[in-house]
Amino acid sequence: MEFKQLEAFVAVVEWNSFSEAAKHIYLTQPTISSHIRSLETELNTTLLNRTTKHMEVTEDGQYLYEEAQKLLKLRGRIYEKFSQNPVSTIRLGASTIPALYLLPNVLPVFRKKHPIYQFELWQSDSMGVLDRLQEHHLDLGFVGTKVNLPDYTFIPFARDELIIAAPANDYYRQLQEEHASLERLMQEPVILRENSSGTRKEATLFLERMHISVSELNVVAQMNDQEMIKSFIRKGLGISIMSGFSVAEEEKNGSILVFHLGEASSWRNLYIVYEKNKKLPQHIQQFVHTICHMFMEKP
Prior knowledge:
The chain is of the alpha/beta class. It has 3 domains: 3-81, Winged helix-like DNA-binding domain superfamily/Winged helix DNA-binding domain (Arc Repressor Mutant, subunit A), CATH 1.10.10.10; 88-158 and 269-295, Periplasmic binding protein-like II (D-Maltodextrin-Binding Protein, domain 2, 3-Layer(aba) Sandwich), CATH 3.40.190.10; 159-267, Periplasmic binding protein-like II (D-Maltodextrin-Binding Protein, domain 2, 3-Layer(aba) Sandwich). 46% of the residues lie in helices and 23% in strands. It has 12 helices and 11 strands. The strands form 3 sheets. Strands 3, 4, 5, 6, 9, 10 and 11 form a 7-stranded mixed sheet that branches. The protein has a two-stranded antiparallel sheet with strand order 1-2. A two-stranded parallel sheet has the order 7-8. Helix 2 (18-24) crosses helix 3 (29-43) and helix 5 (96-113) packs across helix 12. The longest helix is centred in the first third of the chain and has 23 residues, at 59-81.
């Protein structure tokens, strides 16, 4: 029995899926299946009852899962205790949405479990993060769009709804009550993010799918800061296509009106990015697993 087999089994149970387990511990699905078969053969028992549609953990499987968790946590504590470097740094680069609205929820959770690690966090737009990643200044990048970089792996870790944020005044409340169409809303003054923003790229792609060209919009400003855009929206300068994460608090307190677009294509993935041929150290794999566990819906 090896730790890698136990890691594979724990991941399958937690994600209730061989394919999802493979994705999150960076193995192929056949390798995951081989590890499970080896455990079942060695222990002479069935750990998982599998059909084409469902998977159930057996009683023996549940026992092994609980004990394996203890072993893996013990191994982590031993590694941390005898690490040559008492403090290890994880270098992160993140675009606006992950940096401001997602990672602040993750880092305290991870640090509570792994106190010997510290973080260097660098914020830019998506293209800036990818540039810095390619210059080998980062361990992981977090971006709001996927581009063609054959030497890098993009793992979706969260789903983000693109919405229209508007001033909370009577005029826009009336449009909201009338269930104004996207075409109608796009006749209003529009504030855009800068060209290298992941949100800007995804908003442009969404509008193109809706047969609306950015060149036809009444653009009143372009800004490179999410909080600045929200400030100008509150003052009535115009509307903007934004991340749902970025205006969740304002929608709740009523300081900004939110129009949900109601189209499947108004959703996008946020991605973790790292070098494809570089094996991630154990502590960075643990960090990635923590993020995915917090934000991705299990099958």
